[in-house]
Amino acid sequence: xxxxxxxxxxxxxxxxxxxxxxxxxxxxxxxxxxxxxxxxxxxxxxxxxxxxxxxxxxxxxxxxxxxxxxxxxxxxxxxxxxxxxxxxxxxxxxxxxxxxxxxxxxxxxxxxxxxxxxxxxxxxxxxxxxxxxxxxxxxxxxxxxxxxxxxxxxxxxxxxxxxxxxxxxxxxxxxxxxxxxxxxxxxxxxxxxxxxxxxxxxxxxxxxxxxxxxxxxxxxxxxxxxxxxxxxxxxxxxxxxxxxxxxxxxxxxxxxxxxxxxxxxxxxxxxxxxxxxxxxxxxxxxxxxxxxxxxxxxxxxxx
Length: 303
Fold this sequence. Notes:
By secondary structure, the chain is an alpha+beta fold. The protein has 3 domains: 3-82, Orthogonal Bundle (Arc Repressor Mutant, subunit A); 85-161 and 268-294, Periplasmic binding protein-like II (D-Maltodextrin-Binding Protein, domain 2), CATH 3.40.190.10; 163-265, 3-Layer(aba) Sandwich (D-Maltodextrin-Binding Protein, domain 2), CATH 3.40.190.10. It is 40% helix and 24% strand. It has helices at residues 3-16, 19-26, 30-44, 60-82, 100-117, 134-137, 169-175, 225-233, 243-252, 281-294; strands at 49-51, 56-58, 92-98, 121-127, 141-145, 154-161, 163-167, 189-193, 200-201, 203-207, 210-214, 218-222, 239-242, 256-258, 267-273. The strands form 5 sheets. Strands 4-3-5-15-6 form a 5-stranded mixed β-sheet, with helices on one face.
């Protein structure tokens, strides 16, 4: 039995909560996965996994063994990277997840520079605003706007994104163009609901370094950035969003900036990854590339 391979299979089963999913993820025959786990449990003399009709979960011994396996496999990957050509040319699959707007307007247009530098890294990119369980779903790194919500993950700050207040021309024709915050008493907003935390967001302004939040009347609330913009373009009220995400619509004239004299708080852009991926060469070079990308003029992160 190849114990390191058995450990790798075991950790994927724990993370994906199933033998079939782990086999598909590792591109192994399902029967081979079952045999490996039986051999591993026999070798250790303990039961590692509890099997039910719905899912697979680790036993107490299995949970403890999983933590050690994750560290050992991470150390093995790092050691091999140090003493092989992969230190200069990392290879393998890198699974990343990010909001659709960040992917569409910021990361994916610039990816040819990354893949040219690291041609042996294969990228799997998820674009969505929903919460992602990095361990269970086998994701190496996520990008998120706003505050990092999971203290169990390593957070790498990338940028502070300028935000602006927006409305559609049709909405402004109907409701009038606000000139002061007092004018907003006669306006409405599109409410954004965080898919990760369920928090509801009103409009926020910085007045003499003091945060002022306004919750205007609303007809529509959404939990995705694309839906947020679409509702604004449809005339349902004011929104606030990062400038990079809005600048194409501003250029096309489907949205207009309002209240430019009133500053909106900046939004943090952060890369998050599990502690056991901290030494991964693939994760390291990708996050380092993101830091450089976010510092490049013309990204729209800063006006």
